[in-house]
Amino acid sequence: MVGGDAAAAVEELVSGVRQATDFAEQFRSYSESEKQWKARMEFILRYLPDYRDPPDGGGRLDQLLSLSMVWANHLFLGCSYNKDLLDKVMEMADGIEVEDLPQFTTRSELMKKVNR
């Protein structure tokens, strides 16, 4: 019967992951590519248990969604943010692997090339 218990536990785990993924899907932006959404969804799902809204509201989920957008915008669009905020989201995203990231040149780097 141990095998049956293990199979039930695996099914429960798969069901929970599927529910979390379905829940997160509602937050996908229409302009996000599949690669961008996959990375942002991983960020959201990683911290969803910590940022669930309490029964009285509180906006914790909104905070998580905002942090995920800051991270994705920095990664995929080259947006810059306050150093403390950027440090926080980069630490939160540690271990999330994204392939073929675009390379951005900062304004300072461009100015150095012009002044040479």
UniProtKB/TrEMBL annotation:
InterPro entries: XTBD. Residues 24-116 form the XRN2-binding (XTBD) domain. It holds the Pfam family XTBD. Belongs to the CARF family. This is CDKN2A interacting protein N-terminal like. It comes from Myotis lucifugus. The gene is CDKN2AIPNL.
